[in-house]
Amino acid sequence: MPAFAQELKNPSVVIEIIEIPFQDFNKVSRDATIVDLENDHAISWQLTVDNNLVYAHPNGNAVLKFYDKNSEKFVEIGMGSPPDKKFWVAVNTVKEGYVVVQSNLERGWYPATKLIISFTERGGLTVNNGARISVASLNIGSFVIDSYSVHGLEGSTDPPAVNSGSMTVEFLSGDPGQNIWALFPFYITAGLVILIVVLYLTKRRS
Predict the structure, then answer these.
(1) Cα torsion angle, 92, 151, 129, 114, sign
(2) Is residue 183 included in any domain, yes or no?
């Protein structure tokens, strides 16, 4: 019902939830399957990541990548095993290639909370690791999410990274300009300006 009510206010809102099983993380990056989403997520979007994976050993990783529809750009979020819980954010852009923009070797993410990755075309990319903002307003140009992939192994002979659990990702996107309330402050301002002009002219005539 809350989602339906939100769609009434903004018909462009798209909500998509996926659950990724632990087996999908026990592969290297080159063997990862790129999965198409049911919807494209553009203009303004937010990902909420709930990592409920059970890691198999202290060096295990879980890596989530999501891809731009119109280029080779992608954003990568990496979460290491407890107790270190290392965390990194990397982007692949046309000009710079693959760049790690944030890296914490210890206490980089928090299993009891959810990660929030958000983007707007004007504000750029922002990542909250569950406790604080770790990447703020990073300019990555236009980015339309249409697919994702996951992996967790650095080498094909590595032991499994995770042995149970799953990762849930919620995709929420929309065009703020299609919200019928988005222009409400401008209507108020215009109304106040008109009122002031009318009062001013009335006062002059009197």
Answers:
(1) positive
(2) no
Inter-CA distances, 183 with 12, 49, 53, 175, Å? 16, 31, 42, 13
Provide the CATH number for the domain around residue 167: 2.60.120.200
pLDDT at residue number 13: 85
Instruction: Please tell me the total count of domains within the chain.
Output: 1
Q: Name the residue type at position 9.
A: K
What pTM was estimated for this model as a whole? 0.81
d(CA 81, CA 58): 5
Given a contact cutoff of 8 angstroms between Cβ atoms, the answer to whether 46 and 176 are in contact is no
Q: Is residue 154 part of a domain?
A: yes
The answer to whether position 70 is within a domain reads yes
Q: What is the pLDDT of residues 30-54, one digit of tens each?
A: 999 999 999 999 989 999 999 999 9
Q: What is the pLDDT of residue 196?
A: 60
Tokens at 83, concatenated: 């107790």
